[in-house]
Amino acid sequence: MVKWLIYLSSFGGVSYGYLVILISAYLPEPEVGLSSADVGLLLGVMGIAFVVCAIPVGILADRKGRKWVLIAGMAGTAPPIFVFALTQDMAYLILASIAMGATESAFMASWNALIADLTSKETRNSAFALSFVVGTAAFGLGFALPLVFPWIESTYGWDSYSVHMNTLIVLGFLTLLSPFAYILLLRDLKEELRPNQKFIKGKNLKILLKFSGINSTIGLGAGFIIPLIPTWLFLKFGVPDTYSGPLLAVSSITMGFAAIMSTGLAKRYGMIRAIVLTQGMSTVFMLSLAFVPDAALASGLYLVRAALMNMAVPLLDSFLMGIVSKEERGLASAVNAIVWRLPNSASTVAGGYMLNAGDFVLPFYIATILYTIGVTLFYRTFKNVTPTT
Fold it and tell me: Most exposed residue of 89, 139, 209, 339, measured as fewest CB within 10 angstroms of its CB?
């Protein structure tokens, strides 16, 4: 069941990946004309909506059942995608971004918890690694779609705008396949409902706040530049989405293969050392991006950075689900996502304004400093902590 649960998430992953590249790389192009500040605002609002909704949705998932929250989140993804396809009015795009953030919170509050519920301690790392591989592959396919757009335009005589927006409409309908598939897959799953579940407390709260607080430092640093890499490539080197999209696709594929190695690294070095090793090396490559002279070298360094940084993601997810009690996993996922996403969303808006002002170096400096602080604190805090559930 767990494998099919993961595989079926790919429909929404493709759509989400394409929407990200459309916002960050296509909307700033002259035929649409949004500024990098507008891009930062859309991504930031999406993150803030996620933050506002995540706690109540996480509590709902723990009380009423995670599968229905997951299904609702997947079903709610299509409408905002259709809005982006039908208008470029910023007021409507902001509303669509808010809706996208809300539905993402439903997915995140239930996804990790449901995987953890359906696995044991022995199989959990592998399950989270598979989830990450499938997710990054789906995102990668979405990122790569602009690669074929020039061929479609020349073959059928469509303009670039029509190709981009019609693709969104098709993907919106594709996204609707996931919730229907989940209803069939999970129809016999009986969850333990906890109608009187209270807010997370005691030992779980203390360790969760430590984990999430440290992780938020990484989120704050990442927001200054990582969501805006396609925008940075376009503004600094003139790279359009037909190239930055496939770059992110290759990056996703690379991250997926790298994640496969994460389970082996954890067995060899221990989970905490494996996380710190990969994140620390990634930070070095991220700093180097501030000094690159051309787009080709920037692309290569970004691929290495992304692979190393995201190799730790399935290990972090597995570690968190193992240090909190089973009945509070949904809320723990939501709290951790909030504490990461809130500073990340704020710094994405700030990063967008920095790029709009022509400063292509400062975001990397700030991100490097915050990454270094986060990785150091994580090791010092959790080096002797072992998952127990």
Answer: 89
